[in-house]
Specification:
Four-helix bundle copper-binding protein (chains A, B, C, D); homotetramer; 136 residues; Csp_YhjQ (chains A, B, C, D); 5 helices; elongated; YHJQ-like (chains A, B, C, D); 76% helix; mainly alpha
């Protein structure tokens, strides 16, 4: 599932600096998946007849898509690594994924797209947390 | 591989309007994969001792990452579909993926990350072309 | 207004290759302004009681924000210039700005944010067209 | 300078919830300016003959451009406001702008683009800090 992410980490020309490569790959993959899923969930909410009840969900989806794409990109870069940037962005991504999982989770019984999206957010929140813990 | 993309298309609340769902899912997935791969390839090039020989490659990677992320997001939206926007963005994405595949292809023998990246760009170029053809 | 954009073009270390610097700076600036304005307009539409009547407007705003941000970034890069990429992305940006200006224009009488946004989209559409013409 | 940002905040249909509108507008504007400037600085560094000495600068510029664009977009949204998301993203943006200002500042004597970019990063770092303080 994380084939291309792993292939790129494996071909990085310098040392990866002792990072847990499996947790890094899982986090990058989760961020890109969550960005796509949140973008699609915002749009699916927009397609619902009851869109007026879903405006907070749409907004949180848009925020989550943005920070996940940014976090996935920053984690994909290994040259000139900066632990402070990595930690603060992972922390923002984790907080936003948690907020989005909570919000989508409230509509998961009624809207399948919110159920799938809450799952993707929860997975990404955990992947950010796992990587943060591994960074020490 | 395209599990979450397909799950979101399947849970879209309205009709998808006769689009070829498999080609659409493949194109969305290829766009996000290519965005990640190009971001990582730009960084791997930056990590090479011979970075001075790779500046055009880095620049094209950055452009390709940007347009792929945008195209993947636009394709993920189905509400208020506009064929003109879809076609022109797919066309720009296809052209940029071709340019990036050609550029990375020139370094594929020397740098494994460029080989993997050229492959991702070629796959995304083809997915854009296939979707454009299916749109009629 | 385009002070920082111009300052960066002026400090570019190599020749800018005969591009019309004023039109380039105006287009970069318009793209970033339009990205911000469309992001804010999507959100303002989401804040309207009649959000259900504005779903196509929100969707087009999101597409327009994405392609404008990408185009503004690609135009900001001058190293390893590729005319094909530039033209195809400018063309997609122009088409999307036109679609968004038309859509927002329909709500401009009722919603001030749509009036301001239609203006930003029209300005960006023209800046893309002007730069495309200057590129020959 | 922040004309279009302010025009959009002024036309937001609901109450802005007691936020300091001037500090909010200044921060949104600084984020988008910094995103453009960092994108251009990464490219100008790539255009330098001594690019090999600037790889950490390029990488930090790319990170800073990403988080600034994301923060500017999230701040532009007012519907369904979430203080936790706002604070954590502002914090990541501030940390990254500081890191980028420090890195570009080291090359400011030699490269005018790094001088201009360090200034934009410092301005954005301060705007994020000011808004964080105002949020309480």
């Amino acid at each position: 599932m994380t084939h291309h992410v792993t292939a790129m980490l494996d071909s990085y020309p310098k040392d990866l600096g002792g990072v847990d490569k499996q947790k890094l790959a899982a986090c990058i993959q989760s961020c890109f998946e969550c960005a796509q899923t949140c973008t699609a969930c915002a749009d699916a909410c927009l397609g619902e007849d009851m869109v007026a009840d879903l405006v907070k969900c749409i907004r949180t989806n848009l925020d989550c898509a943005d920070i996940c794409a940014t976090t996935g990109s920053i984690l994909s870069r290994r040259t000139g690594y900066d632990a402070n940037i990595t930690r603060s962005v992972l922390d923002a991504c984790r907080a936003t994924c948690k907020a989005c999982a909570d919000e989508c989770g409230q509509h998961a019984g009624m809207h399948e797209h919110c159920r799938v999206c809450a799952e993707a957010c929860r997975k990404c929140e955990k992947a950010c947390q796992d990587l943060l813990s591994a960074l020490g």
